[in-house]
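Whether sequence alone determines local backbone shape is best considered at the level of individual chains. When preparing material for the folding task, we compiled for one chain both its residues and its backbone structure tokens. No coordinates are needed to read the tokens, only the vocabulary itself. For completeness, the protein is quoted in full, as a sequence line and a line of structure tokens:
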Amino acid sequence: MATRSKIPSLSTIFSLYTSLSAFTILFKTILHEILPLKIRTFIVSRFTNYFSSYFNSDFTFIVEEKCDYVTNQTFRAAEVYLPTLLAGITTGSLLVGSSNLKDPIAKPKYGIPINAKIIDEFEGIRLEWTLLSAKNESLYQSKEKRYFHLTCKKEFREKIMSDYFIYIAKLSVKILAQRESLKIHTYNSEFHVWESTIFQHHTTFETLAIEPELKNTLIRDLDAFSNGKDFFKTVGRAWKRGYLLYGPPGTGKSSLVAAIANHMCYSIYDLQLQSVQDDAMLRKILTYTENRSILLIEDVDCGGADASCREENGLWSSCVEERIIIFTTNHKEKLDPALLRPGRMDVHVLMNYCTPYVFRKLAALYLEIEEHNLFETIEKMIVEVKATPAEITEQLMVSKNPDVSLKSLVEFLESKKKMSKESEEGAEIKEA
């Protein structure tokens, strides 16, 4: 017959409890009266961390919005990737909005609200994403600091570190390349933030009215840049490409920027250098821009541009990877020589007055005609008269009737030719 274990008496249990209580009181006394506050805090925190780690089977990755003063690309990848998993959102809220100003009834887009939890699965591993926010104060901005918590079981930590983050980074690149709409960002110098809206300029290289040779050269150059990651790495250069677009107003510089953006599927950051106080602020502004984008600086011949060209750590070295930088100017001769030296602008593009080819392209776009009995007359006048594509377009839009529009264009060119002749004669009399 098995021996029955003895059950401790009530007095024994009470005695043990009294002893433990006395030890606890003594231990607290030692902590509070003998040990300094810093040491007490350290001991308590170590015990807390130990027991928390021992009993908690989860591990949490913290993905902050900024990393080394620039946009954290892992955060950016998560921001792009997670909206594709909105079916897995576990909280009872969802961001809804549309920035399509041209189509008020366009289908809204959905986003992740703060404190929302999204469930993902990777190779059988259950993952939980949470978007969080905290107040962030800095020299050039005051806004909410966003960050993600990614939680998984401890046993899968190494797998997530080695495979999952790379997986979402590659997937986000594909998503961005296939996005339906681009954005144009404008810098708000008062609040020190980039403000964005949908970029809805529909000009493409197919519809752009420029000479075929120039168009083909630009397309080849852009495609080579897009596929040039390994080349830039091999030669030790940052993955950037700079374009200087120069020529008279109305020659299509803005349209060319739009065509480049649509061809590359890059959003645009439109920066007015006049609002930049110094090089330090410029560098700070640029750290809050994204990869795979266009930095556009228009009218660079105006005040404020020169200072940015003197610092070696300024505009170029502060930009992120896979970036196209476009300067535009109406007066190339007024630019700081530092901007024109080798290494600043890779490609100089002259946007000139209208040519017969450009006129025919515009007529096909706006009037939908390939031939007309006034074409020959107009082409001869265009060779003689300096008219910009914008001026030609304005006349072509007078009427949908080709006869009316082309007649208006002929009258405009005759008037412009007459004014030019009178101006030349006046200059000759003045010189005499």
